[in-house]
Write a structure and sequence with these properties.
about 550 residues, alpha/beta, 6-stranded mixed beta sheet, 4-stranded antiparallel beta sheet, elongated
């Protein structure tokens, strides 16, 4: 007979008993004992099994001692209470409880500590009160850490999230750091995407980008000057949560949103070439998330946001510049120091003071009103971001410094200094010597300032094939590649029969010369012996 569940067995026994079978017949038919038949006839629903009494452990003789230690903790300072390890050590040292293990003590303390506090009326389970939010009124902001594979390196970046409390619509942005520039630019981006600003409270942690000082145990905060100016510009009404874990529960919506977004979109770890590329993906993910439903809500996030968006406060007419201005001096290595990293500038600005406009993911360097350099922000501390172009004039005077230059290595990693550059350089050094060949390469690199990269690489490949290892030849072939590109032809280096001369190229574009060819006949009178006149031939 196939096995039956206990409830099916009881139902079958009761049905057959009503049909006239006795208890002995039921016992034989179903292969059960008399107590089972008796219980089935008394109740149609099986009674739950009785729990076995707790099994004795070696800790039982010492449980009262552990309870006394935990009760003493009720009046002890918060940072000087018994941990499970300390309880275990005292049992061993003071009470010779050699037969117990640390795991048994830890498990007992984890359960018993809360029970003792509840018995003493000192604490109870944390209760969370459900909240309702009006559309267009409240929002929450926070940062979270995300790991990304950025240009071949594994880095930890900061994920900014601003979440509307009514609709659950969230806007995310990935930044190199969680500094004040990222904090402000995250707000600017979020308000731009949402098309407005919440009219009520926006909840924040006590992060340094906004709070300069927490005053006492109340909600009063001393805000940073730049954040205060930003709040007044956009009309943001800030609300700061309590410090620590208890404050995280006051903005649980954005805390959960960051975890959800990270689990759904950053697993597996994304591989991108730049933060701009990553943020393009983040914007697409935000749009896709509008189709999801939060818990048991009848509508999607996008449908709720359509209700909320018209109720947001309008954006100010003038934008807010979130960049931070720093003045510094260029060092002897043609670098500036900005937020735990070095960045290069053109060598002619060494020992001069320049102005840095620092944004979340990039920085710009100015000499007066002229922009002299732009760099993507470093994520790792004490790093360097050097541009090879900034050192070319110096390398013309010191060509021997090029092979080991840090800027050259970074250009290789970024793909700006290609294997074709290396092959042309090797051929030039073999043909002209190390110094002259390196100078020829530097002259080619200077052409990058006025010739697009792909055209110059095509020119390098063409000149390398025919052995024309000069900057002029590369420039000519690069212009030919540019012209073929303008004619909508694919930029593919063609192998010419010979490299054209620049003089011949110019002569080919001159207008035709219609003058007669020159003759020396006019100068015959200068000769001492005039040639005899030709005799007429006889008929």
């Amino acid at each position: 007979m196939a096995s039956k569940s206990r409830s099916d067995l009881y139902a079958a026994i009761r049905r057959d008993h009503r049909a006239g079978l006795g208890k002995r017949a039921l016992m034989r038919k179903y292969g059960v004992g008399h107590p089972t038949v008796q219980k089935a006839l008394e109740s149609a629903w099986p009674q739950p099994r009785k729990k076995l009494p707790p099994r004795a452990t070696r800790l039982d003789p010492f449980k009262s001692l552990v309870d006394d230690m935990l009760r003493a903790d009720l009046d002890a300072p918060r940072k000087q209470r018994h941990a499970a390890r300390r309880v275990f050590d005292r049992l061993i040292d003071e009470h010779h409880a050699d037969g117990i293990s640390y795991g048994i003590v830890r498990a007992y303390v984890a359960v018993r500590r809360g029970e003792i506090r509840a018995e003493a009326g000192r604490g109870s389970a944390e209760v969370f009160v459900p909240q309702s939010h009006h559309p267009g009124q409240e929002a929450e902001v926070d940062f979270g850490d995300v790991t990304v594979h950025l240009a071949g390196q594994t880095l930890v970046c900061s994920l900014f999230s601003l979440r509307l409390s009514y609709s659950g619509k969230a806007v995310h942005r990935v930044f190199a750091t969680s500094g004040q520039e990222a904090f402000l630019e995250g707000h600017v981006h979020a308000f731009s995407v949402l098309g407005g600003v919440p009219r009520g409270k926006v909840r924040y942690d006590n992060l340094k980008a906004a709070v300069a000082k927490v005053i006492g145990f109340a909600r009063e905060r001393k805000e940073s000057a730049r954040w205060l100016a930003f709040r007044e510009h956009y009309g943001v009404d800030s609300f700061y949560c309590r410090p620590g874990l208890v404050g995280a529960h006051e903005k649980g919506g954005v805390e959960g949103d960051i975890g959800r977004f990270r689990r759904n979109h950053f697993v597996p770890v994304p591989e991108v070439g730049s933060l701009a590329e990553l943020n393009t993906l983040v914007e697409r993910w935000d749009e896709e998330d509008e189709a999801r439903r939060i818990r048991m809500r009848p509508r999607t996030v996008g449908e709720y946001f359509a209700i909320e968006q018209p109720l947001l406060a309008p954006l100010p007419t003038e934008p807010f510049d979130a960049g931070q201005v720093i003045e510094t001096r260029v060092d002897r290595h043609s670098r500036i120091w900005a937020r735990a990293g070095f960045y290069s500038v053109p060598a002619r600005y060494i020992e001069r003071r320049v102005r840095i406009v620092l944004h979340a993911n990039e920085l710009a360097v100015y000499d007066g009103s002229t922009a002299i350099a732009r760099h993507e922000r470093l994520v790792a501390k004490a790093g360097e971001r050097l541009e090879l172009d900034h050192y070319l004039e110096t390398l013309l005077r010191k060509p021997g410094a090029l092979p080991g230059a840090t800027a050259l290595e970074q250009a290789r990693q970024a793909g700006k200094f290609t294997p074709i550059h290396d092959a042309w350089w090797s051929a030039a050094r073999k043909a002209h010597g190390d110094k002259a060949g390196t100078k020829a390469l530097i002259e080619v690199l200077l052409l990058h300032r006025r010739i697009p990269h792909e055209h110059l690489v095509a020119g390098l490949a063409s000149s390398l094939r025919v052995g024309a290892l000069t900057a002029d030849a590369v420039a000519l072939e690069a212009r030919k590649a540019a012209e073929s590109d303008d004619d909508s032809a694919p930029v593919q280096p063609q192998e010419p029969s010979s490299v054209a001369s620049l003089t011949q190229r110019r002569l080919a574009h001159l207008p035709p010369d219609l003058r007669p060819l020159p003759s020396p006949a006019a100068y015959d009178q200068l000769l001492h012996c005039r040639p005899a006149a030709p005799k007429e031939s006889l008929p």
